[in-house]
Design brief:
This protein has 188 residues and is an alpha+beta fold. It is 35% helix and 28% strand. It has 7 helices and 9 strands; from the N terminus they run E-E-H-E-H-E-H-E-H-E-E-H-E-H-H-E. Helix 4 links the parallel strand 5 and strand 6. Helix 3 packs antiparallel against helix 5 and helix 6 runs antiparallel to helix 7. The protein is globular and about 50 Å long.
């Protein structure tokens, strides 16, 4: 039976207090984050937008399973407070104006929103697009500071897991690969 999903839905690993997001970084940033249990500047750049992704497979698509480039070779699972995640959603705007919104209104909204939301096609094990969307959340300014100094509960490295799943996909063992995926459920 094929599972049906709404066109846009946040699916993630979460519990009563945290939600997991993923990011991919260079060795320098990943080593520092794991050592300090948060991101430290330098090497992390506080003045840049940082994108967090609750979808494991979308992160694999973005980073090429950690093989795409040196700047994205280490995959981190970051558990953040649900309070912080919900603050981000409440203080966001879409990264592009809706078709019914005029450009000036969108520019004003964007200027006053420290968070961008983007809905991109979810991915399957072959990293091919699916017909429904998953959320990417871009943090900037105040939101980056809150993320780094308040929201992060735990950072784990999952690069070996990503490589193992990728190896299984390449070998055609999709059942075992699927079994290793994090269990992402509709966020509520």
């Amino acid at each position: 039976m094929i599972q049906q999903y709404p066109h846009q839905q946040i699916r993630a690993v979460f519990d009563k207090t945290t939600i997991r997001v993923y990011q991919a970084y260079s060795d320098a940033i990943a080593d520092s984050a794991l050592k300090n249990a948060t991101f430290v500047s330098p090497p992390f750049k506080m003045d840049r937008m940082t994108w967090i992704k609750p979808s494991f497979l979308w992160m694999m698509y973005r980073s090429g399973w950690g093989h795409k480039e040196a700047a994205q070779k280490r995959i981190l699972a970051i558990d953040i407070s649900r309070e912080g995640f919900e603050w981000a959603l409440a203080h966001s705007c879409l990264s592009h104006p809706e078709s019914t919104m005029n450009q000036g209104d969108w520019e004003a909204l964007k200027k006053n929103s420290p968070v961008r939301i983007q809905w991109d096609p979810e991915r399957n094990l072959h990293l091919q697009p699916l017909p429904y969307r998953t959320i990417q959340i871009g943090l900037t300014n105040e939101a980056v500071k809150k993320y780094v100094y308040q929201w992060i509960v735990r950072i784990s490295e999952i690069t070996p897991l990503a490589h193992k799943i990728h190896m299984l996909v390449q070998a055609g063992d999709l059942d075992r690969a699927q079994h290793l995926l994090p269990t992402e459920r509709p966020y509520k």
